[in-house]
Specification:
This protein is about 45% helix and about 0% strand. It is mainly α and about 80 residues long. The chain has one domain. The radius of gyration is 13 Å and the shape is globular. It starts with 12 loop residues before the first helix and ends in a 13-residue tail after the last helix.
């Protein structure tokens, strides 16, 4: 089974991860069981965050996986410690 990659913007990453895991919002992440946080970037300006999101959504899957593995080579769930 192929892993689904989700890209999104939020002003509260802990809340957003909790929403995805609880399947609170019916949509893409609920439908495709997006559960783990493998990579994230922080921005002080929401416009820059949205521009980066749009850029990443245009990337090929392999480029995204290389980006994730560059920061998280073991592909650990980065939100695990937040939600314990």
């Amino acid at each position: 089974m192929r892993t689904v990659l989700y890209t999104g913007v939020t002003n509260d990453i802990v809340r957003r991860v909790q929403e995805h895991r609880s399947k609170e919002n019916k949509g893409f992440t609920s439908r495709y069981n997006c559960y783990y946080l493998m990579y994230y970037e922080e921005y002080s300006d929401v416009r820059n965050a949205i521009a980066r999101e749009k850029q990443l959504k245009r990337w090929h899957r392999e480029w995204k996986l290389n980006l994730i593995r560059g920061q998280n080579p073991e592909m650990k769930d980065l939100a695990e410690e937040w939600l314990s």
